[in-house]
Amino acid sequence: MRGNEALATGMAPLLLFFSSMPICQAQLGLGEPKVSCFDFYLHDVLVAEKRMAVTVAKANMKNASATLFGEVVVIDDPLTEGPELTSKVIGQAQGLYAFTSQTELSMFESHHLVFIDGKFKGSTLIVMGRNLVLLKVRELSIIGGTGAFRLGHG
């Protein structure tokens, strides 16, 4: 996810680069490793009539944390072809994130990218990692997938 504007707008373009593991892939009858490169937009809407991200836990602290430390949010965010929320929905990001630092705005994220339309319909990617929210460019790991993304990583 890129850009400080993503935090403010709840929208972040995602650029994915990953490949399937070459180890045992041929032995499993899955053919040669493939590399896919595509982009889409994840919309994390916190304030709306139909919220897509909901806080489910907060730390029991007397003073509110400037970094939201201890807050856990569950998401069911749309993935779209374009940057507008009204763009064609091609999937959902479903999972959670937790604010994990007392000194900087950072989150631990774990979610599935579930593709419901287009070339990758029925496939998923599993994303996990530390997200330093205020950095312009951030990286999260792809730790697995299903369907077209079986054995995916990146």
From TrEMBL:
Annotated InterPro entries: Allene_oxi_cyc_Dirigent, Dirigent
Localization in the cell: Secreted, Extracellular space, Apoplast
Gene Ontology cellular-component annotations: apoplast
GO biological process, one term: phenylpropanoid biosynthetic process
Signal sequence annotation: 1-26
Statement: the UniProt record of this protein carries the keyword Nuclease: no
The keyword Secreted is annotated on this UniProt entry: yes
Subunit-level organization: Homodimer.
UniProt-recorded name of the protein: Dirigent protein
